[in-house]
Design a protein that fits this description.
523 residues; alpha+beta; Uridine Diphospho-n-acetylenolpyruvylglucosamine Reductase, domain 2; Uridine Diphospho-n-acetylenolpyruvylglucosamine Reductase, domain 3; Vanillyl-alcohol Oxidase, Chain A, domain 3; 7-stranded antiparallel sheet; 20% strand; FAD; signal; Flavin-dependent oxidoreductase FOX5-like; FAD-bd_PCMH-like_sf
Length: 523
């Protein structure tokens, strides 16, 4: 199995005509790297306790605990020479400096949810710098802020905020096991983005370790680097130790609901109208449309049902009245709604039943459950109604797939494309995720579902963004372009880099060249 460089700006070192040193890494002894680690002072924790090699009985369990996609947990998947489960800043600094000195590539892993396994695989000798132990969270309600270490999960972030306050929250994703480090550095969107924007729009400081082992905060790193790590892929520039979040006001009670309609119940007409209604609703309303294949009967007949999943920063009476005026076809009623606290709404979005204790936010998997392939798109004009029939037909053919369609508008349309590296702002109706997942093992099953997902993606080309066809950094996708064989080519990187970052790619290149001129960090 061949793994390619990921689509972050990082491959720009060819601009300086510099070669990547990792081609010689195969001759380097991992023993010398490990010996190097012990030469640095490590207060509080000795680094030996954090080192896992294939000879260690816990190596496999530590490796798979933060692999989210079973496609990258097979016998053919390249394995690290060692895992450094850092417990403090000095462990991170030593790992960076020793890997650099001994010509080893490091992969920085927070939650392990990278779609293409890029935070824990490589096709050259590498070590994993695992951040899961560096996961403390310090919430300061008086300052309306929270310092979050990169190894914390989103569930832990939400739980920690709720332990201190019920009138503040933070706009981030719906999956509680996603690591904060990767989520924030790629943009981070969630059910409050129409009110408050992305996660990166609400980050006010950060600390990172550079390729030279220095620890910098916003003031010492400068505004260019601080800009770049908020949506440009932080692991391309350094190791993000922690982020300072600006908490946002939330009411004591919010309203959530989930209404599902099928093809037979006229869902095509509903989705067609949803495209233009959802982006124009008040900022406090987030109304996702989520198509998914469903069984009609026990004979194997299938249909598509679309779940209209809603979140309103207010009471149920208000959102029912609002949607019955702007989207009466949906038929939302008071009995469909649940009034819960903000933190309870994060449990709802994680697909747990209403009333589930919020402690479930602290749960973590011990190994990957499914194989999957994800892709992303941005839609700027309403999709013609007849096209939805083709989408439903293709989804039924794929069977194990769902789509997430997330409405834009609101705050997302007010923030400049260049405010952060994330450029997908005004002009979008909604953002879409294609997500196929399966349990069948073997390369034949994988090839089948990947091929079918690509076919649906290709089919959608006339109806989504163009020149470039935009994609989301948090949903990295090697199909849209990658440098081959771990070699940097600026022209190749530019072609797909602009799909992720549009006009911001050039500034990211300049920052990368400035802060990591020898291209040590390859996320």
């Amino acid at each position: 199995m061949k793994f390619r460089n990921p689509p972050v700006l990082l491959f720009i070192l060819s601009v300086l005509s510099l070669s990547i040193p990792w081609t010689t890494a195969r001759t380097v002894s991992i023993d010398r790297f490990l010996q190097c680690l012990t030469k640095y002072p490590h207060p509080a924790h000795t680094i030996q306790e954090s080192i896992y090699t294939p000879q260690n009985s816990s190596f496999q369990s530590v490796l798979v605990a933060h692999i989210n996609n079973r496609r990258y947990s097979t016998a053919a998947t390249p394995k690290p020479l060692a895992i450094i489960a850092a417990k403090n800043e000095s462990h991170v600094q030593a790992t960076v400096l020793c890997a650099k000195h001994h010509g080893l590539q490091i992969k920085i892993r927070s939650g392990g949810h990278d779609f293409e396994g890029l935070s824990y695989t490589s096709d050259v000798p590498f070590v994993i710098l695992d951040m899961f132990n560096i996961n403390s969270i310090d919430v300061n309600v008086a300052d309306e802020s929270a310092w979050v270490h990169s190894g914390a999960t989103l569930g832990e972030v939400y739980y920690a905020i709720a332990a201190k306050t019920n009138v503040y929250g933070f706009p981030a994703g719906i999956c509680p096991t996603v690591g904060a480090g990767g989520h924030f550095s790629g943009g981070g969107y969630g059910f409050m983005m129409r009110k408050y924007g992305l996660s990166v729009d609400n980050i006010v400081d950060a600390k990172l370790v550079t390729a030279n082992g220095r620890i910098l905060d916003r003031k010492s790193m400068g505004e260019d680097l601080f800009w770049a790590i908020r949506g440009g892929g932080g692991a391309s520039f350094g190791v993000i130790l922690s982020w300072k979040l600006k908490l946002v006001p939330v009411p004591p009670k919010v309203t959530v609901f989930n209404l599902t309609r099928t093809i037979e119940e006229g869902v095509t007409d509903l989705v067609y109208k949803w495209q233009t209604v959802a982006p124009k609703l008040p900022k406090e309303v987030f109304l996702r449309a989520q198509p998914q294949v469903k069984n009609i009967d026990t004979k194997g007949n299938k249909t598509v049902g679309v779940s209209f999943i809603g979140h309103f920063l207010g009471t149920s009476d208000k959102v029912v009245a609002l949607l019955n005026e702007s989207f009466p076809e949906l038929g939302l009623q008071r009995k469909d709604c649940y009034e819960v606290s903000w933190v309870e709404s994060t449990v709802f979005w994680a697909e747990s039943p209403i009333g589930t204790p919020i402690e479930i936010l602290l749960s973590k998997p011990t190994e990957p459950e499914t194989f999957y392939k994800g892709k992303s798109d941005y839609v700027k004009e309403p999709i013609p109604k007849h096209v939805f029939d083709s989408i439903w037909k293709k989804m039924i053919e794929i069977e194990h797939i769902y789509l997430d369609w997330n409405p834009y508008g609101g705050r997302m349309s007010e923030i400049s494309e260049s405010a952060t590296p994330y450029p997908h702002r005004a002009g979008n109706l909604f953002f879409g995720l294609y997500y196929s997942s399966w349990y069948d093992e073997g390369i034949e099953a994988t090839n089948k579902y990947v091929r079918l997902t690509r076919e649906l993606y290709d089919m959608m080309a006339p109806y989504v963004s163009k020149n470039p066809r935009e994609v989301f950094q948090n949903y990295r996708d090697l199909d849209i372009g990658a440098n081959q064989d771990n070699k940097t080519n600026f022209e190749t990187a530019t072609l797909y880099g602009r799909k992720y970052f549009k006009g911001n790619f050039d500034r990211l290149v300049r920052v990368k060249t400035m802060v990591d001129p020898h291209n040590f960090f390859q996320a």
